Amino acid sequence: MKSVEEFLVYAARLEQEAALRFDELADVAASFANKDVAEFFRQMAYFSRLHLDEARKRGGFHDLPEMTPGQFQWPGLESPEAAAIWGADPNMDVHQAMDLALEAERQGLAFYQGVLDNSDDPEIKAMAREFVEEEAEHVAAIERWISRLAA
pTM (2 decimals)? Predict the structure, then answer.
């Protein structure tokens, strides 16, 4: 990341896509009448929207660059937390939804950790550290759900 402004644009995009993905996963879980898992995914979508709002509020103090989807340079082809094509497949079971969510959160965590590890800017490092901590909490929450489902 070259600037705080660029970091905030990336963070906002990542969290926006995470919220959309979790809403899709909640819909899938609900289609399988798994109310607890659907509520969990709705809660994860809510947390992603909180992070999105946080990035936007911080961005209010900066002139954020306008970026089209093609201008983002993600570690992969798309945002680390973007839903896989089959993410909202109505035939997906709860275990597959949890695995998808865990992989996406791990990718989001790795993205923020990479920013933290590779930035020399103290302000970017501080923001990235906060996002690393939040993403690590998401990974742990999903891992607990997976363990609970397996029990």
Answer: 0.83
